[in-house]
Amino acid sequence: MKRLFSFIAKNYFFFLFLFLEIVAFSFVVQNNYQRAAFLNTTNRLTGSVFSAFNNITEYLTLKKANDELSAENARLHDLLNSSFLNNDTLVYHKKDSLFSYIAAKVISNSINKQKNYLMLDKGSREGVKPEMGVITANGVVGTVVQVSEHFSWVMSILHVNNRINARIKKDRHLGNIEWNGKDYRRGLLTDIPPHIQLSMGDTIITSGNSLIFPEGILIGTVEKYNKDQGGKFNTATIDFSVDFNNLYYVYVIVDMMKSEQMKLKSSTNNQ
């Protein structure tokens, strides 16, 4: 006990200072204004920490969110009316799904060559096969030409040997979309009968006559109508609806009825 009192006596000023600090702090916290300022400072600091942590978390989960959004868009495509066939009978009415869509990410792409291709991060393991159409929410992109287990190789619309069966939306007349190897933003609608009148802004869509794209997928709009005086067919310059220099997510079209159609076509050709 004597040692304790001796220790306190030797450190008297330190303990007095500590005691006065505690008293002063208690007065500060009890004062409403000072307490509010103290709590506000604490809350700001805590909020900043949580905000920074949340931003980091959002950044780290951005890829997952994008993947989920892309998959959800593909699911919504499956629900479109264009993805269903109506079969009417005297007894019942049902809808059989015609198309499904596989969401994929573009991992390589070119636009400055005569023959441009894309590579996608989905392959045979996910159900991708050659001769499947590839689109975005804005329109036609190209056609799958080769597939491995995990990847697929797509012939872009920006390929001088690619031809897409097309239709003029307003009057349903047919034509073909080609690319001349120059401007990635523009293509050429060919085989237009001379009596067809086109205007700037007319919409060009897929015809549905091939086994690659369903009818009604946007391709572009007419920029200029080129009349060939004395020729059998006219052409039109179109603005592509897809920005091929800004491709990230695409959708591969799976035609659920293609095998049946191919089988019927093959049997007819053999007759």
Q: Examine the coordinates and then state which fold CATH places here, giving the name of the CATH topology of the largest domain.
A: Thrombin, subunit H
Beta content comes to 25-35%
Q: Based on the coordinates given, report the CATH architecture of the largest domain.
A: Beta Barrel
Text of the CATH class of the largest domain: Mainly Beta
Question: What's the CATH H-level homologous superfamily of the largest domain?
Answer: Rod shape-determining protein MreC, domain 1
Main beta-sheet strand count, sense and barrel state: 6 strands, antiparallel, barrel
Structural class, please?
Answer: alpha+beta
| General shape | globular
The largest sheet has its strands arranged as: 3-4-7-6-5-14
Oligomeric state of the chains in view: single chain
Radius of gyration: 34 Å
Number of helices: 5
Q: In sequence order, what are the helices and strands, one letter per element?
A: HHHHEEEEEEEEEEEEEEH
Helix content: 25-40%
Average pLDDT rating: 77
| Alpha-carbon distance between the two ends | 118 Å
Q: How many domains comprise the coordinates?
A: 2
Number of strands: 14
Could you explain the architecture of this structure?
By secondary structure, the protein is α+β, with helices and mostly antiparallel strands. It has 2 domains: 2-60, no CATH class; 96-257, Rod shape-determining protein MreC, domain 1 (Thrombin, subunit H, Beta Barrel), CATH 2.40.10. It contains 5 helices and 14 strands. Strands 3-4-7-6-5-14 form a 6-stranded antiparallel barrel. Strands 8-9-10-13-12-11 form a 6-stranded antiparallel barrel. Strands 1-2 form a two-stranded antiparallel ribbon. Strand 5 and strand 6 form a beta hairpin. The longest helix has 29 residues, at 32-60. The protein is globular, with a radius of gyration of 34 Å. The termini are far apart. Residues 84-96 have low confidence and may be disordered.
